[in-house]
């Protein structure tokens, strides 16, 4: 008995049909989270990357989006933004991009605000309706500071995006604790068979299936599940090795040889598939279970150790699983079994041995969860489904520690804090794109300290008119950032590395300034793809998001993810 | 300022529209060639370049939009498919009312309407319908396809098109592909750099489940579905051609599979899984398409304008691999051209075979071998014909060879030529006996 009711005999709904290709990735639960979201885009500059991001979110069906943009549609918009038309020249960019985006998916609500951001942010609770905020550069530092402070206090994930010429970067400010249970690890890494610590039911099953192994007829011998073969030969091995399983590579290779010799070759096929599978699995299946460092991080977190009545369910379940781990010496069993050569009935029976153990582990964890909830006086208890998902993925959970992104302040340098040492190492690493990031920081400092005209209104964008002169100024700023960084890290970078880093930084600055704030549609579209993907991960709490900065180099077609 | 520009008439206002693009193309950068002369000529060259897009689906919609907004003015697009409702979650040039119409037609009309001054010429049909003269007219080809076979066909065609005496016959091929959160963008300079065929083993087909498992010992819900698909349909509905787009057919397979699963106590067969297995559905989302398509178009733009170095310059990186499910990771590298590539190399490729296996077994294995992937091979050595798929007379004549052992037909290390109706060239392989 498999314990599941047969599915209803009917075809998919029209929504399931439309979203079929994505539901195969994030399932109905991820889709529901998307449909509950309301995303605010604070648009600026040429404004393409923000709109391209929204395009990739409207298509898969977010619930709601709002565009805040006071810009008027001009000729140059039409050569770079796909969601504007000729007839809309002179109108509000927010209104028209919103309307054309809405056409993509009738199930999505869209609205726009044409108020200037300065006054918009003055209103109390202006940002409250939104589940996630996207901000595109250029933006005045005092406004970006406000948005950053909001991300900090309200725990609303906030993205800062900068796209110009052939380069782009974006940084994500997530809440200080952003745990993910459904990380979708590579299926190859999730098999957990516990061959070194079989429980009684598994040992009994193995004994049944391998009883009289040597005397079996060819058919039966060729259909013993490989997992039983490994357990059987392990027992044999232990008899001659002081009760120890193979300890090191050499012993495992010898053990593999033993298994391989057990295969029959005098049959019609000249070999046995189940033995081939067993031999192939030896090296990866005989390692003692060790916690991944990312999982340890969760158990070691203060939120996990010090529970309160306000602790989110995640931490209560994490604590319960930690105590289970301490008591049992292993995480709850996930309970899945890979496909293997076997008779149908034997395989289903084996699946059930694993499923029963997983259910027993789950019920123990659940009991611990309920105990904690009672002790803490929690009125709302965690759903069993949530505990089950946690148990299944316990070995692959992940905690992202959100942190603010850099907001440059006129007259103040850039602070790297605990990331200074790592950042300095990036300066001389040819794979790191940190120097492009520094060029962007220098761009931001330039705009925050240069006005477009004597009236002191709009910021001046480097390269808009005089590329050479501006590049020189921005390069000077970038050099200062580099020197300050090295100083903050309390280290020195020797020549030629130091000069090389600086001359590279100068080149990146030159390439950025060449664009004079212009967006290239391709780079905006690509960056919009990256950002929308990260938004989906953050909203669905599935897969693992960027922590916390991603840089794209469209000259060499490379990305780099760095934590600042 | 906006009001002024709206009032300006004619060419000036048209050009003002391209202010951002023109700025990049009018200024040298630190990575541009010292001999590169930015300005008018580059802009003019870009607007005259004729470019072909193959595929108007998930990637194709993005590619058409991107090229139109990158200054290309003469774009052609080929796609044989019509629009399905499951396309609408990412193929943003299509609306519900377009379901059933040709993709190439609808996509071309939409982009032409949105981006003024661009001409998009659709062809609703197969790439195989077109001859060398047709492909010869383009400066480059951008592919957004979901079929390996079509990629191999266009790759072989462009390699075959190249003639050393005519530099215009070199047609760069830019190819994108996606699967869920993963994808790749690559640039091929036919005969000069690693081609799609050189890279074939990076896209190995999924191993098929042995027929005996399906027939006698199913263990997974997928086994039950494959059984319904391959065995039950043949037995019970032989006279009806299976149409995987027909809901009645899928429902029939689903119910068959479900019943079989219940017999064997296997859980997990669903309608959605049935559809996925039978149609070999690959998950697809807007964001990955946006990333891969834009990367392809960025390379096309750089290639057409020399405004920065591009992928595919011989001896440099030509391949960007993208993974987005765990953070963001790209690996950009140079895939090395294979001297024994059956398409662009001149040496026969070694193929290790068991001398005891029959010709039939060898033929069956060709479909699954990552380096071959040939489904209907016709095989001959220099001296004799081993097996012909057609015409029927030759097939009949060569059929007795199928049951012979390879060692009876060829010598160790002998070269064979393999032809397949899906490709216009012969693949050269050297059969090396397993020791």
From TrEMBL, chain A:
Q: In which pathway does it act?
A: Protein modification; protein neddylation
- Quote any Pfam family the record assigns: ThiF
Keyword Disulfide bond: yes or no?
no
Residues annotated as domain THIF-type NAD/FAD binding fold: 19-557
Read off the lineage from the record: Eukaryota, Fungi, Dikarya, Ascomycota, Pezizomycotina
| One of the GO biological process terms | protein neddylation
Protein name, please?
NEDD8-activating enzyme E1 regulatory subunit
Highest rank taxon of the organism = Eukaryota
Biological role: Regulatory subunit of the dimeric UBA3-ULA1 E1 enzyme.
Cellular-component GO terms for this entry: cytoplasm
Q: Which family does it belong to?
A: Belongs to the ubiquitin-activating E1 family. ULA1 subfamily.
Native source species: Mytilinidion resinicola
Q: Where is the signal peptide?
A: none
UniProt GO molecular function = NEDD8 activating enzyme activity
Q: Which UniProt keywords apply?
A: Ubl conjugation pathway
UniProtKB/TrEMBL annotation, chain B:
> What Gene Ontology biological process does one annotation of this record name?
protein neddylation
Pathway it acts in?
Protein modification; protein neddylation
GO cellular component, alphabetical, reads: cytoplasm; nucleus
Name the SMART domains for this protein.
E2_bind
Catalytic activity as recorded in UniProt = ATP + [NEDD8 protein] + [E1 NEDD8-activating enzyme]-L-cysteine = AMP + diphosphate + [E1 NEDD8-activating enzyme]-S-[NEDD8 protein]-yl-L-cysteine
| Keyword NADP attributed | no
| CDD domains the UniProt entry points to | Uba3_RUB
Transmembrane portions of the chain: none
InterPro entries in the cross-refs = E2-binding, ThiF/MoeB/HesA, ThiF_NAD_FAD-bd, Ub_act_enz_dom_a_sf, Uba3_N, Ubiquitin-activating_enz
**Residue ranges of every copy of the E2 binding domain listed in the record:** 351-434
Q: Pfam families attached here?
A: E2_bind, ThiF
Keywords carried by this UniProt record:
ATP-binding, Ligase, Nucleotide-binding, Ubl conjugation pathway
Gene Ontology molecular functions = ATP binding; NEDD8 activating enzyme activity
Briefly, what is this protein's role?
Catalytic subunit of the dimeric E1 enzyme, which activates NEDD8.
- Family stated for the protein in its record: Belongs to the ubiquitin-activating E1 family. UBA3 subfamily.
Protein name as annotated: NEDD8-activating enzyme E1 catalytic subunit
The species is Mytilinidion resinicola
């Amino acid at each position: 008995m498999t314990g599941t009711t047969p599915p209803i005999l009917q075809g998919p709904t029209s929504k399931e049909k439309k979203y079929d290709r994505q539901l195969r990735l994030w399932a109905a639960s991820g889709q529901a989270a998307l449909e509950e979201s309301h995303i605010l885009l604070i648009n600026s500059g040429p404004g393409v990357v923000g709109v391209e991001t929204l395009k990739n979110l409207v298509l898969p069906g977010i619930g709601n989006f709002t565009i805040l943009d006071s810009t008027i549609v001009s000729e140059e918009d039409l050569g770079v933004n796909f969601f504007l038309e000729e007839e809309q020249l002179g109108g509000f960019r927010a209104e028209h991009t919103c309307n054309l985006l809405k056409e993509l998916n009738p199930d999505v609500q869209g609205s726009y605000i044409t108020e200037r951001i300065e006054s918009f942010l003055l209103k109390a609770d202006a940002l409250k309706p939104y589940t996630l905020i996207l901000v595109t550069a250029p933006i005045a530092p005092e406004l970006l500071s406000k948005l950053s402070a909001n991300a900090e206090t309200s725990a609303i994930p906030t993205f800062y995006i900068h796209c110009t010429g052939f380069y782009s970067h974006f940084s994500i400010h997530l809440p200080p604790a952003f745990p993910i249970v459904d990380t979708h690890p590579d299926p190859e890494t999730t098999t957990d068979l516990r061959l070194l610590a079989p429980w009684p039911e598994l040992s009994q099953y193995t004994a049944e299936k391998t009883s009289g192994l040597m005397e079996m007829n060819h058919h039966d011998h060729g259909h013993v599940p490989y997992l039983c073969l490994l357990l059987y030969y392990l027992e044999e091995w232990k008899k001659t090795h002081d009760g120890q399983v193979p300890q090191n590579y050499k012993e495992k290779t010898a053990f593999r040889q033993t298994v391989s010799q057990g295969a029959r070759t005098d049959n019609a096929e000249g070999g046995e598939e189940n033995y081939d599978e067993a031999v192939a699995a030896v090296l990866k299946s005989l390692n003692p279970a060790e916690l991944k460092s990312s999982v340890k991080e969760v158990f070691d977190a203060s939120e996990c150790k010090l529970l309160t009545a306000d602790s989110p369910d995640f931490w209560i379940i994490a604590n319960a699983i930690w105590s289970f781990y301490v008591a049992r010496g292993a995480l709850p069993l996930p309970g899945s079994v890979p496909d293997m050569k076997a008779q149908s009935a034997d395989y289903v029976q084996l699946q059930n041995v694993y499923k029963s153990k997983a259910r027993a582990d789950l019920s123990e964890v659940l009991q611990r969860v309920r105990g904690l909830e009672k002790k803490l006086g929690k009125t709302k208890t965690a759903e069993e489904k949530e505990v089950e998902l946690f148990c299944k993925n316990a070995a692959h959970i992940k905690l992202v520690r959100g942190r603010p992104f850099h907001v440059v302040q006129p007259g103040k340098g850039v602070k790297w804090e605990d990331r200074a040492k790592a950042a300095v190492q990036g300066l001389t690493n040819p794979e790191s794109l940190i120097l492009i990031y520094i060029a962007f920081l220098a761009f931001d400092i330039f705009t925050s300290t240069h006005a477009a005209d004597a009236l002191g209104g709009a910021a001046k964008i480097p390269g808009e008119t005089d590329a050479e002169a501006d590049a020189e100024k921005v390069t000077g700023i970038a050099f200062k950032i580099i020197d300050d960084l090295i100083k903050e890290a309390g280290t020195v970078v020797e020549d030629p590395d130091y000069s090389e880093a600086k001359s590279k930084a100068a080149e990146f600055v030159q390439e950025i300034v060449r664009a004079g704030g212009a967006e290239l549609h391709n780079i905006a579209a690509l960056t919009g793809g990256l950002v929308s993907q990260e938004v989906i991960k953050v909203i669905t709490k599935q897969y693992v998001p960027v922590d916390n900065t991603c840089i794209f180099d469209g000259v060499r077609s490379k990305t780099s993810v760095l934590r600042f | 300022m906006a009001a002024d520009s709206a009032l300006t008439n004619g060419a000036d206002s048209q050009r003002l529209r391209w202010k951002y693009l023109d700025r990049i193309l009018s200024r040298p950068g630190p990575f541009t060639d010292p001999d590169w002369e930015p300005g008018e000529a580059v802009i003019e060259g870009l607007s005259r370049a004729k470019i072909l897009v193959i595929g108007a689906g998930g990637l194709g919609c993005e590619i058409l939009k991107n090229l139109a907004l990158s200054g290309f003015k003469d774009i052609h697009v080929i796609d044989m498919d019509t629009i399905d409702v499951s396309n609408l979650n990412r193929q943003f040039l299509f609306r519900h009312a377009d379901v059933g119409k040709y993709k190439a037609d609808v996509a071309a009309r939409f982009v032409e309407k949105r981006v003024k001054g661009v001409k998009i010429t659709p062809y609703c049909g197969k790439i195989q319908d077109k001859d060398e003269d047709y492909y010869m007219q383009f400066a480059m080809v951008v592919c957004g396809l979901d079929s390996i076979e079509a990629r191999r066909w266009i790759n072989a065609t462009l390699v075959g098109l190249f003639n050393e005496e005519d530099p215009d016959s070199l047609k760069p091929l830019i190819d994108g592909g996606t699967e869920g959160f993963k994808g790749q963008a690559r640039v091929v300079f036919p005969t000069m750099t690693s081609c799609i065929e050189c890279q074939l083993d990076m896209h190995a087909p999924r191993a098929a489940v042995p027929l005996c498992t399906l027939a006698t010992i199913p263990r997974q819900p997928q086994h039950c579905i494959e059984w319904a698909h391959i065995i039950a349909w043949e037995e019970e509905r032989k006279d009806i051609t299976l149409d995987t787009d027909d809901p009645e057919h899928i429902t029939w397979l689903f119910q068959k599979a479900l019943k079989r699963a219940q017999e064997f106590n296997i859980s997990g067969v669903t309608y959605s899984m049935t559809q996925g297995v039978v149609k070999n559905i690959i998950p697809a989302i807007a964001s990955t398409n946006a990333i891969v398509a834009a990367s392809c178009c960025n390379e096309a733009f750089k290639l057409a304008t020399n405004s920065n170095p591009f992928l595919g310059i011989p001896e440099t990186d030509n391949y960007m691999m993208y993974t987005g499910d765990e953070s963001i990771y790209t690996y950009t590298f140079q895939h090395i051209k294979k001297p024994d590539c059956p398409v662009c190399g001149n040496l026969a490729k070694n193929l290790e075979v068991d001398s005891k296996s029959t010709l039939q077994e060898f033929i069956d294995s060709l479909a699954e071998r990552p380096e071959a992937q040939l489904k209907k091979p016709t095989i001959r050595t220099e001296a004799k014909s081993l097996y012909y798929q057609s015409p029927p007379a030759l097939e009949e004549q060569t059929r007795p060879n199928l049951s012979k052992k390879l060692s009876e037909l060829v010598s160790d290390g002998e070269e064979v030529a393999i032809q397949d109706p899906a490709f216009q060239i012969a693949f050269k392989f050297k059969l090396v006996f397993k020791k």
